[in-house]
From TrEMBL:
Domain of life: Bacteria
PROSITE patterns in UniProt: PROKAR_LIPOPROTEIN
Name of this protein: Extracellular solute-binding protein
Signal sequence annotation: 1-23
Length: 474
């Protein structure tokens, strides 16, 4: 980057007057404003000079350190050119505090790293601007064909022909398995629900009543946030109608999907006794060899591998001899021929640009950082090891990413195909959908004696709660 300053600079001046051609991309009285000028070298690359950008990120947990290390690495490599400042804001407050900053233009971020589900609401409230104009002027291109289409399809936020959000990654519940026990049970991982049930039956029969074929922490909110929607989608359901935004949980085939999803979980817990319910932590089952499958959160991967190594007195590099990885694809689909049987539901971080950004140099610097984060194999590998499998094909198809032992042995197996990964879809009522799915899960799965009539009543009640909010936001 430094040699750009040494190159013969071409005075490629982009003035405010020349930006009129891009008014359709957000100009005019009601749209974002672009000011300033760009300078490019003889190769057409933007020359950055002490540009500072502020990024508000929802990354605030155990993966925060990894994110900040990547940002620091970018800042070192772009010293004197671009500096990224970050502020981490928790998931519970992000969707309220960040819009307030942008609306008031007070400490507003330039760049947003948010979960996909919040961005439709941000766009509807005119808090974002598309990247198209900045890409055209800077020549810094983000080509969505280089990203997993299962996630890239959300990038327009419903504004066809515009790029509002760039997918970064995917994260959901992950599955470890005990390699020795699987080998003792025949060595084949289940590909369908029927195969899962049969394997669990053999495990229970072989290892006795103190053994749990599946250890999962259903007392953790993320279980309801990720596994329950996965079960609904695998049975062909929709979380809401993408055209009307209304929840249709009691109608037609969708009603069957919801009932089958609930039954699939209850069968594993109550009817078969293959899994527990209501536990906050089941790590002891894994460490003590009392389970075949262990479900946990992807961003806890490093902690779990280290914890397992410490408990067994081995090096982390040796854990792969004992713990394998698989996915929950097909686990809940009562019909293996269902088109969505292998879908996995979760969250995905996306980058978006605040409406408040005006200077074209800052807009170009944002694109440069996004390109660095989502197209650099080393960075993508670092971020995957922190719990977030890359949405970028440039990264996921690279030799560095594929050969990394953590990525290849775990993350590539947790999420074998991101085109079968699903997020919330686009709705400003995402919070109401998510919260009522969680309450429906608790109401229908926590009580083993719930009747079908009681379950149906809870589905109806939760559906109606969602639709009250849809009426309000529409």
């Amino acid at each position: 980057m430094k040699n750009k300053r040494m190159a013969v600079l071409l005075a490629m001046t982009v003035t405010a007057l020349s930006l009129g051609a891009f008014a359709a991309c957000g100009g005019g009285d009601d749209g974002p404003i672009t000011t300033g000028e760009l300078v490019k070298d003889e190769n057409g690359n933007v020359v950055f000079e002490n540009v500072e950008i502020v990024c508000n990120t929802v990354v605030s947990g155990s993966d925060k350190d990894a994110f900040e290390q990547i940002v620091q690495q970018f800042n070192i490599e772009h010293r004197g050119e671009i500096t990224v400042h970050t502020e981490s804001i928790g998931d519970g407050t992000f969707e309220n505090s960040v819009p307030q900053k942008i609306n008031n233009n007070s400490n507003a971020p330039d760049l947003i790293m948010a979960h996909q589900k919040v961005l439709k609401s941000f766009a509807n409230n005119n808090l974002l601007q598309p990247f198209d104009e900045a890409m055209e002027l800077s020549g810094i291109e983000i080509d969505l064909s280089n990203y997993a289409q299962g996630l890239a399809r959300y990038s327009s936020l419903g504004e066809e022909g515009s790029l509002y959000a760039v997918p970064v990654d995917a994260q959901s519940m992950i599955v470890y398995y005990d390699k020795e026990k699987l080998e003792e049970l025949g060595g084949e991982l289940p590909q369908t629900r029927a195969e899962l049930l049969e394997l669990c039956r053999k495990a229970k029969e072989k290892y006795g009543s103190g053994f749990w074929p599946i250890a999962w922490a259903t007392g953790n909110e993320y279980f309801a946030r990720y596994v329950f929607p996965t079960a609904i989608l695998q049975n062909g359901g929709e979380l809401f109608n993408p055209q009307t935004l209304y929840a249709e949980w009691t109608e037609g085939e969708n009603a069957d999907s919801f009932r089958n999803a609930i039954s699939s979980l209850r069968e594993l817990i109550y009817d078969k006794g293959y899994a527990q319910y209501g536990r906050e932590s089941v790590l002891t089952e894994l460490l003590n060899g009392n389970c075949l499958f262990y479900l946990t959160l992807s961003w806890s991967n490093s902690e779990h591998l280290s914890g397992y190594a410490d408990a067994k007195g081995i090096n982390v590099s040796e854990v792969t001899d004992y713990l394998g990885a698989t996915s929950i694809s097909g686990w809940f689909a009562t019909d293996p021929a269902e088109a969505e049987a292998n879908v996995i539901y979760g969250d995905s971080h996306f980058f978006a640009m605040s409406r408040t950004v005006k200077d074209i140099n800052r807009k170009a610097a944002i694109l440069e950082f996004i390109r660095y984060f989502t197209q650099n194999a080393q960075i993508g590998t670092q971020w995957a090891k922190a719990g977030h499998v890359s949405a970028s094909k440039i990264i996921s198809e690279s030799e560095e990413y594929q050969s990394d032992p953590i990525v290849s042995n775990y993350f590539s197996r947790f999420y074998p195909d991101l085109d079968e990964f699903r997020c919330m879809e686009l709705t400003p009522a995402f919070k109401e959908v998510q919260n009522n799915l969680i309450s429906l899960f608790v109401a229908t799965v926590s009580n083993p004696s719930s009747t079908q009539d009681a379950i149906q009543a809870e589905i109806k009640r939760s559906q109606d709660e969602v639709n009250v909010m849809v009426d309000f936001v529409k």
